[in-house]
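Re: the 137-residue chain
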Amino acid sequence: MRILLLLIALLSGPALSQGIDSNHAQNNFMLHCQGCHKADGSGLPGSVPSMKNFVSKFLSVPEGREFLIRVPGSANSSLSDKDLAELLNWMLMELSTEGLPDDFTLYTEVEVRQERARVLVDVAAFRATLVAQMKLP
């Protein structure tokens, strides 16, 4: 079902897909994320959290969606709001589809712009609070 929704989103034009260009997003991932999160999103145990098959779980808890924008690596990146929205959508669809909610809506440039302005003070504590709310196996 998720694959069908994704296919519909990608084929429905820029209004729905926000113009996701997989090659562009993947290049941005390589330039802005891969150094710490590795090419497959697995992170560095003990220092950099894994995104692989995990990052979509943030969408299942209140404020988790916003957290993915507000985390310093996103909020402070040199990417434009549009490029960051595209990158977040790509990461969720490429690195963590298993936990992607059926009602997932793509990030937008406007949403990213609004949330980036909200600075996270204690990232580790906020992340821990969100992870504690998740239904993990």
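Confidence is low (pLDDT under 50) at residues 8-18.
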